[in-house]
């Protein structure tokens, strides 16, 4: 059975909250609360893939220590802006 959009968003919000690094919990939770509902299916697919990335890498991308892979660059830029506020 296929996952409903509502359940998928709920699952991704939980994964955003329960990361390995507290900083990433806070950053991704803030972004997911603001943006997940408005993403189209391709955006949800991309964020779901992003959630499978290593927290250490994510943190370096979001803080600008290391450039994000091209595939995630736009989304990481949006997440970084939420982080900076």
What does this structure look like?
Helix 1 (5-17) runs antiparallel to helix 2 and helix 2 crosses helix 5 (73-84). This protein has one domain (5-84): DNA polymerase, domain 1 (Orthogonal Bundle). It starts with a helix and ends with a helix. It is mainly α. The model has no long low-confidence stretch (mean pLDDT 94). The chain is globular and about 40 Å long. The protein contains five helices and no strands. The chain has helices spanning 5-17, 22-35, 41-50, 55-62, 73-84. Helices cover 67% and strands 0% of the residues.
Strand content: under 5%
So what's the oligomer here? single chain
Silhouette: globular
The succession of helices and strands, N to C, reads: HHHHH
Distance between the termini: 39 Å
Strand element count: 0
Helical content (DSSP H or I, runs of 4+): 55-70%
Number of helices: 5
Q: What's the name of the CATH homologous superfamily?
A: Flavinator of succinate dehydrogenase
Brief synopsis:
This is FAD assembly factor SdhE. This protein has 85 residues and is mostly helical.
């Amino acid at each position: 059975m296929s996952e409903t959009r509502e359940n998928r968003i709920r699952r991704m919000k939980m994964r955003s909250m329960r990361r390995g690094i507290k900083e990433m919990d806070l950053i991704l939770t803030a972004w997911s609360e603001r943006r997940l509902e408005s993403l189209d299916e391709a955006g949800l697919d991309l964020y779901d893939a992003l959630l499978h990335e290593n927290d250490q890498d994510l943190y370096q991308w979001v803080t600008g220590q290391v450039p994000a892979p091209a595939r995630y660059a736009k989304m990481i830029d949006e997440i970084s802006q939420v982080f900076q506020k």
